């Protein structure tokens, strides 16, 4: 139930902040300088709503009390399509970023980022193909799942190096938090796909996935709108990655939706199997084949949650025996 509320908060926050952000770009932005005519009033409103919405989504996801079963491969056409498109977008933009770099130091830095980005894009394409086929390659090759996270860390370091040389503006802050949240989502998704701490990782992908999708949609759509309008950009984030942000957001949302649906199916199947096993036998076989409810419960716990809980026979306390004898 808490996860459902987090989805509602995501939708409401996006419906408030995205129109405000587009209004700020269309009507309050100077085309020559990129500065806003109302100062920081609209920026404060957008930032406050984003902060409250992200905090609520993280808290609601963390407070979700549903027990998660072990992760099983997800089959989802939207997750497969957006995963492959995101991987292709990452590869194309990383290669395109090498052109136009003049200094040797920048060329070396972007060459490293490009190599990591190509491998990260390949892993994202592999993830999309896994979602299309309903399988999980990363359970046997867990280190592959970490490649997008490593690329995200390198991009975050490069952003900090670029942003530290200029005065902080709202666009740079939005872009930085977008990269941080996407990085955290990719890391916990890698743990989930590699079957490392399924229950905790399954909760973390919602805690960071929904805010990451929110920020990626906001920055991606607004950044693309700035390019379309020809407004001077005040931020330093690579303009070519704004469409990739939109693809990342759609990939995250489709994966979370598929995981929620798969989780509901797994729970219903477990309950159905438990009820089927616990169904009373025919009258003629009831005395021979009847199994105590206690044993059925223990078998279900051991099967679904790998539980070691055992019941012990009730015995009379030795202290009571002494009292009775005396």
From TrEMBL:
Transmembrane segments: 7-27, 39-58, 79-101, 107-131, 143-167, 173-193, 205-225, 237-258
Keyword Chloroplast tagged: no
Name of protein: Uncharacterized protein
Keywords, sorted A to Z: Membrane, Transmembrane, Transmembrane helix
Keyword Lipid biosynthesis: no
């Amino acid at each position: 139930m808490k996860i459902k509320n987090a989805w509602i908060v995501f939708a409401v926050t996006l419906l408030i902040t995205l129109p405000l952000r587009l209004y700020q770009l269309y009507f309050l932005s100077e085309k020559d300088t990129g500065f806003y005519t109302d100062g920081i009033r609209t920026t404060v409103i957008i930032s406050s709503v984003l902060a409250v919405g992200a905090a609520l989504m993280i808290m609601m996801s963390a407070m979700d009390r549903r027990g998660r079963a072990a992760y099983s491969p997800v089959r989802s056409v939207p997750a497969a399509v957006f995963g492959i498109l995101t991987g292709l977008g990452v590869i194309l933009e990383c290669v395109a970023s090498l052109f136009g770099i003049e200094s040797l130091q920048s060329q070396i830095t972007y060459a490293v980022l490009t190599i990591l980005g190509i491998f990260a894009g390949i892993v994202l394409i592999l993830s999309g193909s896994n979602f299309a086929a309903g399988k999980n390659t990363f359970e046997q090759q867990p280190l592959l799942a970490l490649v997008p996270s490593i690329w995200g860390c390198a991009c975050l370091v490069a952003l900090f190096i670029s942003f530290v040389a200029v005065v902080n503006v709202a666009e740079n802050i939005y872009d930085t938090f977008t990269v941080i949240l996407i990085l955290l989502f990719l890391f916990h998704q890698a743990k989930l796909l590699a079957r490392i701490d399924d229950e905790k990782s399954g909760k973390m992908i919602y805690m960071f996935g929904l805010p990451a999708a929110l920020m990626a949609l906001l920055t991606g759509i607004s950044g693309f709108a700035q390019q379309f309008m020809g407004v001077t950009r005040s931020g330093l984030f690579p303009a070519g990655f704004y469409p990739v942000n939109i693809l990342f957001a759609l990939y995250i949302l489709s994966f979370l939706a598929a995981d929620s649906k798969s989780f509901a199916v797994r729970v219903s199947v477990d309950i159905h199997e438990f009820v089927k096993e616990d169904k009373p036998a025919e009258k003629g076989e009831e005395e021979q084949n009847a199994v105590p409810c206690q044993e059925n419960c223990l078998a279900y716990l051991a099967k679904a949650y790998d539980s070691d809980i055992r019941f012990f026979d009730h015995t009379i306390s030795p202290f009571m025996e002494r009292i009775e004898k005396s």
